[in-house]
Request: fold
Amino acid sequence: MEAEPPLYPVAGAAGPQGDEDRLAVPDGPEVPLDELVGAYPNYNEEEEERRYYRRKRLGVVKNVLAASAGGTLTYGVYLGLLQMQLILHYDETYREVKYGNMGLPDIDSKMLMGINVTPIAALLYTPVLIRFFGTKWMMFLAVGIYALFVSTNYWERYYTLVPSAVALGMAIVPLWASMGNYITRMSQKYYEYSHYKEQDEQGPQQRPPRGSHAPYLLVFQAIFYSFFYLSFACAQLPMIYFLNHYLYDLNHTLFNVKSCGTKSLGILTGFNKTVLRTLPRSRNLIVVESVLMAVAFLAMLLVLGLCGAAYRPTEEIDLRSVGWGNIFQLPFKHVRDFRLRHLVPFFIYSGFEVLFACTGFALGYGVCSVGLEQLAYLLIAYSLGASAASVLGLLGLWLPRSVPLVAGAGLHMLVTLSLFFWAPLPRVLHHSWILYLVAVLWGVGSALNKTGLSTLLGILYEDKERQDFIFTIYHWWQAVAIFAVYLGSSLPMKAKLAVLLVTLVTAAASYLWMEQKLQQGLVPRQPRIPKPQHKVRGYRYLEEENSDESDVDGGGGGGEQGQGDCGQEEGAQARPLGAEPAGPCRRPCPYEQALGGDGPEEQ
Reply:
């Protein structure tokens, strides 16, 4: 009985094809093993490296698009639901028929208070949360809290709406601070993957040249805000496809309105208490809220599944290991930097102008004159204008960085001065084209403001150890400005425009003063970031101490003998200057053995 041939050919044995195999490699007992198990003969290391980093760059672009889409869907769902909810709850017939004496206006006021007041405390906990969870997971957690707020509207009660509004207020600043930090980090990573050859020459510990990531940052911020401003248009879809079918026309809602625009006082004085012609069925409301909930859940999945990490795991450990007390204090210590102090008026104005577009202009000029049914279209005009104008932020690639910010401020100044002297008449539609033009122009100024400010912060503060603190300060001042607008909602329109104009002039002058100081070579004073204090004993952080106490505390001469042997070995071996011994008689760990060293002293 003949033996069966082996299933796989034996290395070194001649095959049926003679002394050469299919890959034209000579076979036989005299052939070295390296030629059989070595690298593929057509392997091009440089080409494979180029393909690898191209995939990395595509991954960064995917992260930016996913974060932008997730932020757009989240904010669009939040604004759309809040707008629809406030309009429904404003109608007194809806409140009495559906909720009786539950006190829905009081619940709404407390809900708005929770959303606007809670972010004031965000400076105390936002950096700690971002460092604890990480940038990506902070984004995911905050988007989840927005989804929680949407889910509580299935059962509108005090104990569901108010606590979820407070939780939402706590998540506002962490979400947008982590978003700004994430986009900035993606631009830095894209630069690293695009210039990987330069990184290899400089070494992994060398920082890239200052300002090297600025072109990529401009592009990524333009992409992000192009998506973000579309959220205002997405928020109007429930109004257009659902709520507008139930609204009275302007002749009913504006019957008692006497003055609009610069002559108005508060928010829609004299507006009719009944705005719904027929009450929407509960089943239809549940369908709309279910669609919004599904979109919020989709935003969570986008952030969770498509957004990669902003930092490497070792970098995350480094950022946490500076000490939680230092993380808590560093946002306050950055006040000593004159650049941040000069930009604070711009931060405040950035909060003012967005809320003025959504409330002051849209209600005091738009709804007051052309009716509630035109509110959605005015905000869509603002949204599309801002989204398209976000591309103008790319002008920073060829022009000085101050041009977009100053241009946006100048445009807003012209529009604000025009609004000072314009009081449209109620229930008159022939000037509606002016409203849409003002909405588009205001959106263009908003886009130049937001893209220019976020890009400027990413350029001035390149250190990854500081970015989360800087964006926390930026969005915290925005939240303070929004809280101030909430408190002054009953002021006359002229007072609102005056505050807006004074803040804008102060912000522009302060920013130009900062640029002049930088051109004069004045060095900003920045707080020192403490070095990481690692407590982990792993391959990444090898402690230069003996982890085995038996050699030190062991009884008798065993420990002494071990120390003596180690002392002889250390005396015989040459050690670099300044290196410390690894401890009494410590054996090298497997990682050190793989590197070919005898302990931390040789690394």
About this structure: The chain has 24 helices and no strands.
